[in-house]
Amino acid sequence: MVPASLPITTGLRLLSYCNQTYNCGIALRPLLSLPSNYYSAAKPNRQQKNSNIPSLSLSISSFIPKEKSQVASKSIKTFCTSSNVTADPSPPATTSSDENVVDMTKIKDMANTLDIRVGKILKAWRHEEADSLYVEEIDVGEPEPRIICSGLVKYIPLDDLQDKHVVVLANLKPRNMRGVKSSGMLMAASDASHENVELLEPPVGALPGDRIWFGTEDEKETLPEAASPNQIAKKKIWEQVQPHLATTDSCVATLGGTHSMTTAAGVVVSKSLVKANIA
Question: Residue 254: which of 265, 240, 268 has the closest Cα?
């Protein structure tokens, strides 16, 4: 219902329900427009009680057809009786898109706690208990070679692994792979269908044990220490970094398409796969 009495305001124009159009399909227009001299005449009697001012008792139901009155009663929920209320509703609050933006600086910092090194395969053979696995003995610049298992049988001939320079992720927790303790992972690029897989290749001149990082050559001196295998597992660093690893149109391995995998001798590449995932 409309308020029973009007506030004393010159030229007041009573609007019913903010002049909005509701589900009933009827635009509710101004119900009453009072002349400006109305209040001029009433001015001497302002100190009288409000009961002396003519009252209005109007129902909007009289302006709505009976068959639509039920719909209107359900649709109309908000009363607007103030003369300074505008008919335009406030826009709904929106969520800033910045909340969904990945903080690549944080991802890069995490990525550079991965102990990624240049390695050289000294020997490779088929796993005796797993048809899909190779076992490699790899020099990563430590006193003893590492033993690493990789599921490359389907993709790379065994002969292509012998004496090959590779990229090794060295600070993962060791895993038992069908009776063989694997201490690391060979990093490779693969297409979307995962039908073509290529091992990442360090640049010519890179030596076993050379550290690989994400960024420019100038950033080498400011790299953080590599995280421990326990930290990598607990903080899920690899799981957060890996989705952002890919090759570019020129086959360069990168983080986020901008930070190259770099060694002191140059950048890491895939032999032929462009825009490929890296894992």
Answer: 268
Joined together, the tokens standing for residue 74 give 């359900």
- Residue 102 pLDDT class (50, 70, 90 cuts): confident
Cα distance between residue 166 and residue 147, in whole Å = 14
Q: Give the length of the chain.
A: 279
161, 171 Cβ separation under 8 angstroms: no
Q: What is the pLDDT of residue 225?
A: 95
- The whole model's pTM is what? 0.65
Q: What is the CATH number of domain 104-278?
A: 2.40.50.140
Beta bridge partner(s), residue 32: 14
Residue for token digits 């979307």?
A: 192
Task: Enumerate residues 6+ apart whose C-beta is below 8 A from 163.
Answer: 120, 121, 122
Alpha-carbon distances of 210 from 115, 189, 268, rounded to whole Å: 10, 20, 12
Kindly state the DSSP code that residue 171 receives in the 8-state scheme.
-
Say which residue the tokens 């269908």 belong to.
193
Q: Which two tokens stand for residue 1?
A: 């219902």
| SS3 assignment, position 160 | helix
Q: Is the dihedral of CA 200, 201, 203, 208 positive or negative?
A: positive
Sketch the domain layout of the chain as residue ranges.
Answer: 13-75, 104-278
For residues 174-184, average pLDDT: 96
The closest of 24, 93, 12 to 54, measured between CA atoms, is 12
- Please say whether the beta carbons of 122 and 145 come within 8 A: yes
Task: Note the pLDDT tens digit of each residue in 65-93.
Answer: 554 444 444 444 443 333 444 444 444 44
